[in-house]
Amino acid sequence: MAKNITSRDKDYAQWYLDIVKEAKLAEHSPVRGCMVIRPNGFALWENMKSVLDGMFKDTGHENAYFPLFIPKSFLSKEAQHVEGFAKECAVITHSRLASTEDGVEVDPTSKLEEELIVRPTSETIIWDTYKNWIQSYRDLPILINQWANVVRWEMRTRLFLRTMEFLWQEGHTAHATKQEAVDETIQMLNVYRDFVENYMAVPVITGVKTESERFAGAEDTYCIEALMQDGKALQAGTSHFLGQNFAKAFDVTFQDKDSTVKHVWATSWGVSTRLIGGLIMTHSDDDGLVLPPKLAPVQVVIVPIWKNDEQKAAVTEYGDKLLQELKSAGIRVRFDDRDNYKPGWKFNQYEVEGVPVRITIGPRDVENNKAEVARRDTKTKELSERTEILAKVTNLLEEIQSNLFETAKSRREAMTHTVDTYEEFKQVLEEKGGFIYAHWDGTPETEEKVKTETKATIRCIPLEGDKTPGTCMVTGNPSAQRVIFAKAY
After folding, report:
1. pTM over 0.85
2. Most-buried pick from 73, 139, 227, 451 (CB within 10 A)?
């Protein structure tokens, strides 16, 4: 166990914060509830962003940017939307400061005629804009994505998982028919699943949110749900079918091929920097961060060892040639030849920072044309022939990526339970946690009763798997299928 990292078994919440700190991913800022994302954390986000951006463009989407500030009146136009976000909105009431003897104060004469909301999400201002872009069926579909920051005034915050300001992407699309919009919603849900499973190596379950859990203003919210090592769920991404709610609220219509005027159909979808929190909690251990190779900012680090200048010259030349070979193969590699840190310190730091593969080179390795190759996930190492290192590392990166996913999947399966009675449900939730499949009668009253009494929520109504009807574990009333309950972040 790393010196400054609390054991998961002792205090999981503190373990998570220790990982974020020691791996230099982020830290608290002077603004309560906000974070400073450090270079290690931001490089990870950039890799996530790059992959996702490519996926969005491959499915026909374009990037645009919309204002950070939204007129208050815009939020009033869609009743469910404003009700859902009203308690989380930061409001700008004045436009300037005035100097005083003690510094500055808000200039009382600069009160805005209409307050501005710092964007909690962009549906309202985007749909006001789409009204000007759409006149005919020829203008559809509109497939727009935005990379941005948003502000939601959270009271209880945790780095990456829940902060008042965070980074995300939000897709907003407009379609001529309901079916096109539904297809878009499902398509983007599957894009998220592809990314989270195949790049983050985190297994997820796809499903539909209940009415009480769906996005404010949506007709249906689809989600991907992941399970963390402590048995709590994490909503990793959402895709919303908005119906015609925003089109009607902002009077966005088009003339169809038959010359009739119709309201357009809409979707929105997004993931955020909370994915970094999910990645940490899925793969990391008591020695630090563990990163999937496909997203790791540094996939391989080469650490040289020498005792004198002659050895240094030989090891450096040997290591530099290996560096160039790995780089030429498209591997993200670093050669750490700094004199001011000892090899042992470097080994520890790269383990804490989650670099998937470490190559160590000493004078004897140069003489024997070998190098030691170690993997972060299983902490195993072996001596390899110099001529075999490129192939060895390439295969190792694939093995680590696959192993992380399979390990997480096996853990999730071991922490997934099926119950038939409410008493059994409460016992399993208390003693084991994890995902619990149980029948629910479909009523918000039963859903709220379970939430109030146990703090577990319905994470989703699964899209795949067993659809056998049954009886509700709480009321005994008919149930269409089992749903997934869990405590969640």
Report:
1. yes
2. 227
